[in-house]
């Protein structure tokens, strides 16, 4: 009964479905075609999407970090904190890497501090070797980790052995003393040998600098010691022409003038105070062209100044030492800075520091820290051959642009850049040295190693 009643319905349903398929066969085939086409397009799009995502992820830099909008404020704060923490850590690492670091060798005292038992060692015009050492020891640029250092400072005081005959530094021992220091650090540390000293820094603050000789003919004949030719020398000597004593990587630095003495003088005589001396010079001036050594001191320049202007009321010329020497500079409009045995002179620093316009008479001289001190705007340069016209030249400047030169000169940044302090100050002479070294970071073993990695 059950089967007889149900069967006809199934049969009819079967027949209807068959008839429907027969009548609409074309339409069904068409639908089947579109379904297959849709599946194919969908499959292709999905494949392209997956391929593109993989390519972007593995072949391009990730997009910059942006704030993510999360519905949960706690999650949002946590995500932001994580991003900022990572960012700050990254910036700190970058800043630490960017800051130049100097490792100061701890040498036996015979190379440096033993010499300072003579107080003059720390105060005479060659004392930048002491001042730079002291400033670096207490500065933020110093590192106690030699593996983190860009440069290695070798503190050897070679100008503190004073001659009993003339009172000037006797540097005949300089080469052997520095050679001994190099032998010490190369045997106790691995850092000299890995670069052959190219990232090591020395100071040569006397007449002919890295030649470590006091007379030019001897200095030229001997040249730079072979064991220092790869190193960096901080030296007072610098000229704009080829010279054996600067055939080495070097930085021209100013001679040492005590900032304490400058400050004391300025307290009594400020730079804008009364100046009743027109042109001033006090120092060694040979009456005859040749001195006792048989050489021409100052290439005859100082002798010519004395002969030509000693009787001129506008010139205040003195040949003997005077304890109040700086007070005379503070009273002067123009301060003559002729060459001595070497082109440079402590008067360059003293004149700038005390507001007296330096008159540079030293052909081809290269002046210290030209990016910090615009020498062309604060000084007068007179060629050695034009000494006879010196009076006319200074009178012309006084009548034309003296006030402009003085305004530029009295900017305290000039004084700061040329004075060494025991504690490094931003913009001071040791700071300028560090800045100059930062332009030589291609010599840093640490930087070159990191860049290769």
Strand order of the largest sheet: 1-2-3-4-5
Helix/strand order, N-terminal first = HHHEHEHHEHEEHEHEHEHEHEHHHHH
Residue stretches low in confidence (pLDDT < 50, at least 5 long) are 1-31, 51-84, 89-97
* Annotation field: number of helices: 17
* Helix and strand composition category: alpha/beta
User: How much strand content do the residues show?
Assistant: 5-15%
Count up the domains: 2
Q: How much is the average pLDDT? A: 84
> Per the principal axes of the C-alpha atoms, what is the gross shape?
globular
Distance between the termini: 91 Å
Main β-sheet: number of strands, strand sense, barrel status? 5 strands, parallel
GO molecular function: glycosyltransferase activity
Domain Exostosin GT47: 100-396
InterPro entries: Exostosin, Exostosin_GT47
Protein name: Probable glucuronoxylan glucuronosyltransferase IRX7
Features:
453 residues, Rossmann fold, 5-stranded parallel β-sheet, 10 strands, 9% strand, disordered N terminus, transmembrane
Word description of this protein:
This protein has two domains: 102-256 and 424-451, no CATH class; 259-417, 3-Layer(aba) Sandwich (Rossmann fold), CATH 3.40.50. It is 44% helix and 9% strand. The chain contains 17 helices and ten strands. Strand 8, helix 11 (346-353) and strand 9 form a beta-alpha-beta unit. The longest helix has 35 residues, at 25-59. One of its GO terms (cellular component) is Golgi membrane.
């Amino acid at each position: 009964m059950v089967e007889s009643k149900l069967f006809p319905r199934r049969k009819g349903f079967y027949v209807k479905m068959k008839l429907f398929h027969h009548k609409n066969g074309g339409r069904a085939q068409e639908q089947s075609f579109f379904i297959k086409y849709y599946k194919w397009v969908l499959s292709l799009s999905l494949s392209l999407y997956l391929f593109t995502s993989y390519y972007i992820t593995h072949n391009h830099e990730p997009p910059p970090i942006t704030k993510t909008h999360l519905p949960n404020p706690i999650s949002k704060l946590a995500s932001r904190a994580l991003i900022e923490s990572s960012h700050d850590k990254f910036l700190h690492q970058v800043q630490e890497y960017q800051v130049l670091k100097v490792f100061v060798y701890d040498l036996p005292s015979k190379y440096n501090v033993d010499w300072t038992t003579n107080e003059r060692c720390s105060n005479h015009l060659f004392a930048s070797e002491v001042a730079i050492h002291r400033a670096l020891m207490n500065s933020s640029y110093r590192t106690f980790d030699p593996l983190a250092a860009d440069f290695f400072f070798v503190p050897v005081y070679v100008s503190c052995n004073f001659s009993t005959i003339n009172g000037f530094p006797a540097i005949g021992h300089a080469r052997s003393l520095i050679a001994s220091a190099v032998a010490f650090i190369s045997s106790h540390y691995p850092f000299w040998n890995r670069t052959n000293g190219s990232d090591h820094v020395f100071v040569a603050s006397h007449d002919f600098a890295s030649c470590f000789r006091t007379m030019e003919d001897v200095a030229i004949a001997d040249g730079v010691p072979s064991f220092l030719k790869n190193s960096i020398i901080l030296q007072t000597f610098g000229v704009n022409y080829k010279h054996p004593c600067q055939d080495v990587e070097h930085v021209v630095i100013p001679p040492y003038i005590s900032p304490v003495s400058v400050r004391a003088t300025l307290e009594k005589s400020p730079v804008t105070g009364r100046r009743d001396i027109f042109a001033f010079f006090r120092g060694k001036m040979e009456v005859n062209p040749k001195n006792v050594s048989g050489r021409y001191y100052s290439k005859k320049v100082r002798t010519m100044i004395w002969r030509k202007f000693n009787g001129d009321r506008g010139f205040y010329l003195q040949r003997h030492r005077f304890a109040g020497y700086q007070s005379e500079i503070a009273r002067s409009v123009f301060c003559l800075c002729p060459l001595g045995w070497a082109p440079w002179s402590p008067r360059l620093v003293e004149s700038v520091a005390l507001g007296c316009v330096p008159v540079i008479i030293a052909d081809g001289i290269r002046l210290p820290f030209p990016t910090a001190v615009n020498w062309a705007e604060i000084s007068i340069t007179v060629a050695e051959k034009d000494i006879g016209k010196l009076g006319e030249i200074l009178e012309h400047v006084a009548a034309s642009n003296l006030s402009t030169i003085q305004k530029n000169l009295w900017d305290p940044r000039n004084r700061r850049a040329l004075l060494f302090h025991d504690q490094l100050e931003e913009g001071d002479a040791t700071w300028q040295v560090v800045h100059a070294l930062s332009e030589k970071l291609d010599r840093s073993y640490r930087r070159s190693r990191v860049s290769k990695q």
